[in-house]
Amino acid sequence: MPAQEAIGFYFDVGGVLIPDPLGQNAREIFRQFGERFGSVIDELVARRRPVGLATNFCRGLLELVLTSAPVLSRLSICCSADIGVVKPSAEFFSRASEIIHARETVFVDDRAANIAAAQKFGWTTVYAEGDWLGRFKDRYLGA
Questions:
Q1: From CA 27, how far away is CA 141, in angstroms rounded?
Q2: What are phi and psi of 48, to 5 degrees?
């Protein structure tokens, strides 16, 4: 088992990184993604932090996301279609922990049920509402 990093980060895909994956064309979705999150993920990776995507997306939609936003292809993936369980189950968070190898995990999501389940599992959470991205940058990137 690889050594654990001090802190790792998981981002929900639908609703957080991609606000409305079915309501816009793919090109616009990924343009918005690059503007909002590309630099944050790049900075976390540059700081050698484990970063991952935690998603209930089907594998086909996730593949579209990964091929359309190259920065995401470098991240750990915990996809419910691959592991057979979905958020907010405790088993999802257990499997995600095995994938990211971090002593502490920060989880960003826009659904209260997922946030509550992650907190119950012992993860630090960021509820994606309001200026959550600004608060995230201040706390974890010292922006």
A1: 28
A2: 60, 35
